[in-house]
TrEMBL record:
Keywords: ATP-binding, Cell inner membrane, Cell membrane, Membrane, Nucleotide-binding, Translocase, Transport
Record bears the keyword ATP-binding: yes
Topology relative to the membrane: Peripheral membrane protein
Protein name: ABC transporter ATP-binding protein
GO cellular component, one term: plasma membrane
Organism lineage string: Bacteria, Bacillati, Actinomycetota, Actinomycetes, Propionibacteriales
Amino acid sequence: MSVLSIENLSIDYRAETTVHAVREVSLTLERGEILGLAGESGCGKSTLAYAITRLLKPPAAITGGRVVFSSREGYDIDLSSLAGDDLRAFRWDKIAMVFQGAMNSLNPVLRISEQLEDVFITHRPELSKADRRARCADLLERVGVDRDRLRAYPHELSGGMRQRVMIAMALALEPQVLIMDEPTTALDVVVQREILREITRLRSELGFAVVFITHDLPLLLEISDRIAVMRAGLIVELDDALTLYTKPKHPYTKRLLSSFPSLTGERGGFVRTGEIALEETDQTVEA
Ligand SMILES: Nc1ncnc2c1ncn2[C@@H]1O[C@H](COP(=O)(O)OP(=O)(O)O)[C@@H](O)[C@H]1O
Ligand SMILES: [Mg+2]
């Protein structure tokens, strides 16, 4: 059962010269899965993410195709049909997103509690103040931040903590899809790992599907169910993570894999948690 279908989507930037940033991309996101989107800088990943969340701005223009959301309640929505309040509600409620610099978009003069509560005040006005407070505290704990941090101002939190707050906000209304565009790229490796573990756990708990975008292929191999490899606006390969890693088909995928020493080094430093034994990875990696 898919929750999102991208059908032949094409997006151009109409500047002095036209850039075909996304070219007839077709993808489905299954309910509850983590779909990784890999590819070098400039290949069109963010453009695709912005299209899915209807955040594209001129000079970007969708020149063909469509994105359809299939709600768990059983109805389909062509995203291009949404506008105004419907679009805003849809964006928090059904599809939420976390971007790389998200943690810097917290308002510096408001406490974390106020910023989290705002989401509920806007989108769940029927909640009582007490219920709202309780939900905010629960949300924070869900993403691994102590509830007394509710009283903190953003500058009192580390970058990792602030990014967790952003993830909490994205999850506030229990969306069915979470789009994450380089959400941990600015963070150090240990914090990055912790947050990723949190996301995979939350996905099991809450059942949302994730499109996880990064140029960091080793990281994607670790957390994704399936991976799409994008190059120059095209999806050149799409497969489950293990197959993509052990039996890449497209020359570009092979090249991308071999560009990460941790994946190809003699000791096969990378292990997809619990699924590939070290010995196996050593043998299957192409030289
Ligand atoms: N505002 C813009 N105007 C013109 N071209 C753009 C604009 N934003 C992005 N592009 C171009 O679109 C392509 C895809 O960019 P982007 O989606 O940001 O790639 P990625 O996220 O994979 O790094 C690139 O060639 C980039 O130069
Ligand atoms: Mg990008």
